[in-house]
Structures are given as C-alpha cells and as structure tokens.
Amino acid sequence: MNGLRGLLAEFAAGDEVLAATRAARLAGYVALEVYSPCPVEGVAEVLAFRTRLPRVTFIAGLLGGAAIFLFQVWVHAIEWHLNIGGRRSLAAPAFIVPTFEITILSAALLTAFAMLWKNGLPRLHHPLFAVPAFARASQDRFFLFIGAADPRFHAGHVRAFLESLAPLEVHDVPR
C-alpha cells in the first residue's frame, strides 16, 4: 500500500465527478467517496449508498414511547395508585401526550448520536486535509477518492485510470 490512503481526483463540475464515479464503479472499484460543495444528483445511487438510519429512528422512537408508556402505567396503576374522584387506575388517554413527546425525543436523540457515530464524528483531522487542493471541496471543486482499502487498488493502475477520466489533477492522499 506504500504509505498511501488513496488517490484523489479533482474535477471542476458535478457532472464530471458523476461520470467519473460511474466509470470507477464500472471498473470494479468499491472503496469510493465523493466530496462536493453541493449535492450532485445521482451520486448516491452510483455509490450504492444505503443507510440504516431510518430503521434506527423508528426503533428508538418505538422503544422510547413504549418505555414511557409502561413507566406511566407502573406509576399510576401499580406503584402509587390513588383513587381520586372515582377514576380508573389505568387512564391511558392521559398518557398520550407524554408518550408522544418522549417518542419524538428519543427518536431524534438516538438518530443524531447514531449519525455522529456512523460518520466517525467528531473527527478533528482527516488525511484528506493534507491535500492542499481539498480545501476547495467546500467552495467550487468536486473530488473522487479511491481508497487503498479497495481490493483492486494498485497505485499505478488507479492513477492511470483516474488520469484517463480527464480530471484537473490527481492527488496522493498520505496515511
């Protein structure tokens, strides 16, 4: 792997990086990442980007809602039952608002923490920051990264492949 984390190709437009990503996927590369200053329509599909975050959100909301509902049942009907005004011991309609609020809160909090964990954040330094041109990724440049973790990665072959896509420049990304 000769001390490289991967190779980074720099493009001037979103459609160029999309075409390059398609070509890299067709060439069999799987350790691909695209960095751009704005969303590029179609990149997520080409990269076969999938997320489990909606499932995490649903399960967190379901568990949070069930937990607060069962807690209210335990408090009001079992542990500290007070018969005030002839009310029933299990007044489920009174539990709707707190259950809804805690469902939303637990889903939102766990989703935020899962997103941060999955993205490896907070991360104060990334090897891509060693490439001076990468500073323009948040301004006006589009980048395709092929990582050294790819089973087909060989620096010479990947560099030749990326240069065949007519990028502005191909950069080495050190470890």
- The tally of helices reads 5
Q: Which stretches are low in confidence, meaning pLDDT under 50 for 5 or more residues running? A: none
| Terminal-residue CA separation | 10 Å
The description of the largest β-sheet is: 4 strands, antiparallel
Number of strands: 4
Estimated radius of gyration: 25 Å
What spatial form do the alpha-carbon principal axes imply? Answer: rod-shaped
Which sequence of SSEs, written as H and E, runs from N to C? EHEHHHEHE
Q: In percent, how much strand structure appears in the residues?
A: 5-15%
Q: What percent of the residues sit in helical stretches (DSSP H or I)?
A: 40-55%
Cross-sheet strand order for the largest sheet: 2-3-1-4
Mean of residue pLDDT values: 93
Secondary-structure content class? alpha+beta
